[in-house]
Amino acid sequence: MMRPFTSTIPLEEARRLLNEAARPIVRLDRVPLEGAGGRISAEDVSSAIDVPPFARSVMDGYAVVSSDTAGATRSTPISL
Question: Is-above-0.70 flag for pTM?
Fold first, then answer.
């Protein structure tokens, strides 16, 4: 069970602390794909083909802000 916070700090101070503590990753290792599990890619990874090769929004889903859909009905839809 997560304990409640007993105190907080201002957002700008939290950002300052994060910026001071963050360090870029400078060491690069080349590993075979089968050994790459749990590691962070040093470069963007993308596919030359769509996977799956067809629209599958029924499985992917969409996220919306509920207030953006206020008043929408089947006969009067709202564009998002």
Answer: no
